[in-house]
Write a structure and sequence with these properties.
The complex is a heterodimer. Chain A is mainly alpha-helical. Chain A has a single domain, classed as MetI-like fold (Orthogonal Bundle). Classes of the chains: A mainly alpha, B mainly alpha.
C-alpha cells in the first residue's frame, strides 16, 4: 500500500516537472503573446478570458511572462546542481578513500559551509560579484557542494572497509581503479536521491535572490526576454499589492512552488525506490 | 570523558571552523571582487577618490596584512566604520538584532507548534489518509517560496481583510513615543504593563512570524514524524498500552517525551535556515532587522557593513550550534562523549 503511494509520489513529481519544463522549453510556441510586448490600453487588468492571469503595470500579458519566466530559474538550478554534484561527489570520493589530513581539512571546510545559512552565503557572494546569471550559478553551486560531499564521504568510509575492496587491493589494483571500479558505483544510489532536492532548493534560492533584486542585473532592459523571471516579476509586482493587484505576484509564485514541489516529490519517490529499507521509517 | 572535557573538545573544534568561515568570508568579500573602490567609483572616478577609499578600507596594504587586520579587528570586536552612516558597524548591527531575534523566536514557536501537531498526528495515524494529508502539507511547506507565502498572507489579511497591518514592527505614531528596553517589543510592552501596546506589537508580529514559521514547520513535522514512529515501536510504549493507560497518555507522556530529544536538537540546528528565511520575510514585511540592514548595505555598496553583518552571522550561527550541541549532550544521558 505504502509502496503504491510512494510510486504515485514519484509519478506526480515527474508529471509536474515534465509539464513545467516542457512549458518553459516550448515557451515561444505556447505563450499567447510575447512576454515583452506592451499591449496597448491593457494596464493592470485582472484575470479574464482574454488574459487568464491578467496584465501588468507595463501592459504585458502575465500568462506569457509566467510561461517564459522559468527559463532563468531552471537553467540556473540545473547547471549549478550539475556542478555541485560533480565537485561534491569527486571530493567525497577522494576525501573518504584517502583519509588523513586532506580528509580532515576538507571535512572541516565542508562542515563550515554546511552550517552557514545558504541563502545568506549566496547573497554575500552575489552581492560582491555583482548580479548576473553566471554569478548566481557560481553562488548556488558553491553552497550545495557539502550536501553531496557529506553523503558520499560517509558511504566511501563504509565501503572502504568491505572485503571486496581488500580483495581488489590484494589482486594489485591501483587506487584509481579501486575508486572508480569498486567504490564509486556503490555510492551512486545515495547521490541520485539528493539531486532532485538539490534542484528544488536551488530553484528556491534563485527565486529568493531574484526577488531581493540580486539575481539578474536590475538594469537589464525590461524588453530582454531573460528579464521574464518569476522572482523578478514578484519583486516588481509587490509594489502593486497594496492596490489589490494580486495576480501580479500570485501566478509567478505558484509556478516556483509547483516546480520545486515537483522536484521534492521526485526526491521522495526516488528515496524509497532506491533505499527500500527506509520505506519503513520515513 | 566528563561533560566538561567534552565541552572543551567541542569548543576546540568550533574555533578552527569559525576561522575557516571567517577566512572564506574574507576571500569572498575582499579578494574575489577585486578592488571594491575601483568598482564603486568606476572608470570615471578621480584617482584621489579611489585612493582615499582604498586608504579608508586598508586596501592599499598587502593582502596578508589586510587579513591579519581583519582577524584582529574581529577579535577586538571592531567591525569597522560604515561608509554610509559613519557609525561603528557593530553598534548598528546590535541595534538591528532584537528585531530579527524576536521574529525568529516567534517563528520558532509557531514552527514547533505546527510541526509537532502534524508530525505526531501523522505518526500516530500512520498510513491513514490523515497521515498522507499531513505529509503532503509538510512537502508543500518545503516547496513554498517563503517570500511568496508572505505576500499572499499580506494581500489576504492586510490588504483585503485588514485584520493585520501590512508591515513594520509598530505603527509609526506609537513608535515615536516608544522607548525600547530589551529591544524585544513584546517583552518591552509587558515590562511596561501596557496591554494595548502588547496587542499592537503582537498584531504586527503575527503575519511575519507565521510566514517564517510555516516554512520551518515542514522540517519539524518531518523529524517529529520519523522520531515518533521509531518510539511508538518501542517496548515501553507497548507496556504502557498493555497496562491500560488511555491512548493520549501513552502518546504524550511515554512516546512524545522520549521523541522530543532529537526533535529539540534538530529544531535548534535550524537556526541557520531560519536566518536565511528571515532575510526574505523581513523584506516582505518591511521588518527593520538584520536582513534589512544587510540589503541596505549591499545596495549602498557599504563594504564594511556587508562584511560586518556576514561576520556577525557567522559568529552567531557557530555559537548557537555549539550551545545546542552541549545542551543535547546534557539533556540526553545516553550520549557518550
Amino acid at each position: 500500500m505504502r509502496y503504491i503511494w510512494r510510486n504515485r509520489l514519484l509519478l506526480a513529481g515527474v508529471i509536474l516537472v515534465g509539464l513545467i519544463v516542457g512549458m518553459t522549453v516550448f515557451a515561444p510556441w505556447i505563450a499567447p503573446h510575447s512576454p515583452t510586448e506592451a499591449l496597448e490600453g491593457k494596464l493592470l487588468l485582472p484575470p479574464s478570458w482574454e488574459h487568464p492571469m491578467g496584465t501588468d503595470n507595463i501592459e504585458q500579458d502575465v500568462l506569457s511572462r509566467v510561461i517564459y519566466g522559468g527559463r532563468v530559474p531552471l537553467l540556473v538550478a540545473f547547471v549549478s546542481a550539475l556542478l555541485s554534484l560533480s565537485v561534491g561527489v569527486m571530493l567525497g570520493w577522494v576525501s573518504g578513500y584517502f583519509g588523513g589530513y586532506l580528509d580532515r581539512v576538507l571535512s572541516l571546510c565542508m562542515d563550515a559551509i554546511y552550517s552557514f545559512p545558504s541563502l545568506i552565503l549566496a547573497i554575500a557572494i552575489v552581492a560582491m560579484l555583482g548580479p548576473g546569471i553566471l554569478n548566481m550559478i557560481f553562488a548556488i553551486f558553491l553552497v550545495y557542494i557539502p550536501t553531496y560531499y557529506r553523503v558520499v564521504r560517509g558511504q566511501v568510509l563504509q565501503i572502504r572497509e568491505e572485503e571486496f575492496v581488500a580483495a581488489a587491493h590484494s589482486l594489485g589494483a591501483s587506487h584509481l581503479r579501486i575508486l572508480i571500479r569498486h567504490i564509486a558505483p556503490n555510492t551512486i544510489t545515495s547521490v541520485l536521491a539528493i539531486i532532485p532536492f538539490n534542484i528544488a532548493d536551488a530553484i528556491l534560492t534563485e527565486a529568493g535572490l531574484s526577488y531581493l533584486g540580486l539575481g539578474l542585473s536590475p538594469t537589464l532592459d525590461p524588453n530582454d526576454l531573460a528579464a521574464a523571471d518569476w522572482g523578478i516579476d514578484i519583486n516588481k509586482g509587490q509594489k502593486f499589492l497594496q492596490g489589490g493587484h494580486w495576480w501580479l505576484i500570485t501566478f509567478p509564485g505558484l509556478m516556483i512552488m509547483l516546480v520545486s514541489l515537483g522536484f521534492g516529490l521526485i526526491g521522495e519517490g526516488l528515496n524509497d525506490l532506491l533505499n527500500p529499507r527506509r520505506r519503513q521509517r520515513m | 570523558m566528563s561533560f566538561w572535557q567534552y565541552a572543551v573538545t567541542r569548543l576546540a573544534l568550533t574555533i578552527p571552523m569559525v576561522f575557516i568561515l571567517l577566512s572564506a568570508v574574507f576571500i569572498v568579500l575582499r579578494i574575489m571582487p577585486g578592488d571594491v573602490c575601483i568598482v564603486v567609483y568606476g572608470g570615471r572616478g578621480r584617482s584621489e577618490d579611489i585612493q582615499r577609499c582604498q586608504e579608508q578600507l586598508g586596501l592599499n596594504k598587502p593582502v596578508f596584512t589586510q587579513y591579519i587586520e581583519y582577524v584582529g579587528g574581529i577579535a577586538r570586536l571592531d567591525f569597522g566604520i560604515s561608509m554610509r552612516t559613519n557609525k561603528p558597524v557593530l553598534q548598528e548591527i546590535l541595534n538591528q538584532v532584537p528585531a530579527t531575534l524576536e521574529l525568529a523566536l516567534a517563528a520558532m514557536v509557531i514552527a514547533v507548534l505546527i510541526g509537532l501537531l502534524t508530525g505526531v498526528g501523522a505518526a500516530v495515524h500512520s498510513d491513514h489518509p490523515l497521515d498522507h494529508g499531513m505529509r503532503f502539507f509538510n512537502v508543500i511547506a518545503f516547496a513554498m517560496p517563503i517570500f511568496w507565502l508572505g505576500l499572499i498572507l499580506q494581500i489576504v489579511f492586510a490588504v483585503w481583510l485588514k485584520i493585520f497591518p501590512v508591515g513594520g514592527r509598530i505603527d509609526p505614531i506609537t513608535g515615536l513615543s516608544f522607548e525600547p528596553i530589551t529591544g524585544l517589543y513584546l517583552i518591552d510592552s509587558l515590562l511596561r504593563a501596557d496591554l494595548g501596546l502588547f496587542l499592537k506589537v503582537l498584531k504586527h508580529l503575527t503575519l511575519p512570524a507565521i510566514t517564517l514559521g510555516v516554512v520551518l514547520s515542514g522540517v519539524v513535522g518531518r523529524i517529529s514524524r520519523a522520531n515518533m514512529l521509531e518510539v511508538l515501536d518501542k517496548e515501553y510504549v507497548k507496556t504502557a498500552r498493555s497496562k491500560g493507560l488511555p491512548e493520549y497518555r501513552v502518546i504524550i507522556s511515554h512516546a512524545l517525551r522520549n521523541a522530543m530529544i532529537p526533535i529539540v536538537t534538530v529544531v535548534g540546528l535550524q537556526f541557520a535556515l531560519l536566518l536565511g528565511g528571515a532575510i526574505l520575510t523581513e523584506t516582505v514585511f518591511n521588518w527593520p532587522g538584520l536582513a534589512q540592514y544587510l540589503l541596505r548595505a549591499i545596495n549602498a555598496r557599504d563594504y564594511p557593513a556587508i562584511q560586518g553583518t556576514v561576520v556577525f552571522i557567522t559568529l552567531f550561527i557557530s555559537t548557537v550550534n555549539l550551545i545546542v550541541d552541549l545542551l543535547y549532550s546534557r539533556l540526553d544521558p545516553r550520549v557518550r562523549y
